[in-house]
Amino acid sequence: MPRILIIDDDESICHVLSRTVKRMGCDVDSVGTLSAGVGMARARAFDVVFLDVKLPDGNGLSILGELTAMSAKPEVIIVTGMGDPAGAELAIKNGAWDYIEKSYSVEQISLTLKRALDYRRARSKEGGNTLWSVLSRDRIIGESPALTRVLDAVAQFAGADSNVLITGETGTGKELFAHALHQNSGRSDGPFVTVDCATLPESIAQSILFGHRKGAFTGAEKDQLGLILQANGGTLFLDEVGELPPTVQKNFLRVLQERSVRSLGDREERSVDFRLVAATNRNLDDMTVAGTFRSDLLYRLRAAHIHLPPLRERAGDIRLLTEHFLEAMCARAGAAPKTCSTDFLETLGAYEWPGNVRELIHTLEHAFTAAKLDQYLFPQHLPPGLRAKVARARIAGPAHSAAKTPEDANGGAGDVTPSQPLQEYRDAVLARAESRYLQNLMTATNGNIREVIRLSGLSQSRLYALLKKYGITTH
Fold first, then answer.
1. Assigned architecture for domain 399-469
2. Which has the closest alpha carbon to 349: 376, 316, 320?
3. Between 266 and 279, whose confidence is greater?
4. 168-181, pLDDT tens digit by residue?
5. Distance from C-alpha of 7 to C-alpha of 27, rounded to nearest angstrom
6. Class of the 315-395 domain?
7. Superfamily for 145-309?
8. What is the pTM of this model?
9. Using an 8 Å Cβ cutoff, are 135 and 151 in contact?
10. How far is CA 312 from the centre of its chain?
11. Ranges 13-22, 126-135, 204-213, 226-235: which has the least confidence
């Protein structure tokens, strides 16, 4: 019997959902808070979780990753009384099965649940819930919900032969995941050929990719097998594909369509069999609009898509990554193992990591060198610039980013009377500044939640908590 968990503080909604679920032959539990929901999900294995967005102790989306990463890997259906397009997009990208409104009919809710259960049964038969745990994942370190979702995608796509586009910020490890796709595919015994499109000279790009025959141009003193043909039987990895010269994009599109290559100076085409994996930190959709990247090539590249989360969304992995890299550094240097102090790890966890894992590695190399013979690593061993940014962020906070208003110029007095206790006065000023800041930011971004999160520096859960606190709508 499928087990369903309802996390909602609205008793009437819980009643309707419970009746609907029981009629479908499912076992059901319901709770009214986030903490109770997490506790229940840890205690029992659920197949599907109905999760409300606005709950007494926080925003439901804040526990989405935790729920989907549990051993039972339940399908999570977000249920909200107030639809938010940006919230829906964010929920789906972070692993939700669906995002529905409470105004939906019982039939619509039943159909959504049925589809989720059908999908779960199909995955169970195929062993889909445990695929990522048996992946060959050389040098991919971490167990966070965000990373687990990516590994699930790798497990899903590795066995297929479709093209895969890997996106993510600089330093997130796109080449590592390209290797993982290759190592876990049927082509693992074949070659893995990397093309760095960012350093591909446009003048000789055709020759490097497609190869050439002797005498094809001045300086072509012998036959040269192109990188595409070198990848025959294996995987061709186009790193930074957004930098591929426009003149090459057209010819490469033809290779993907025909699966054949004509080297420069050659009269005949040769068939080629490879699996394409491409990666970029650029927005290829924006580039197609601007006319700098072919839309038809993008459709070919993005038959499957894997987006790598930035390190700031993988905070739970920082300790594991730190221990892994430090152990490797000590082994290379023949040094005794080093131990990280609690405040050293706390400082690493408080930093935003714009350079992601690559920046973390460089930072640890600095700390390792600075520590010399010291057994313990302390924040003082970290780069001063990093420590300064962490200290600044700790002292500042979002309220300090709010633009000054006439009330601010008068000390933020407004309707606050001098007879108030100092702490009460401070709290009132801070609350008004936070509210005004968020209202202005929502207006400036037209309610785009992702843009608000980026500009404010707030976490998703903190943002929704503040919007609820000040009664600011998201649409």
1. Orthogonal Bundle (1.10)
2. 316
3. 279
4. 999 999 999 999 99
5. 14
6. mainly alpha
7. P-loop containing nucleotide triphosphate hydrolases (3.40.50.300)
8. 0.65
9. yes
10. 10
11. 126-135
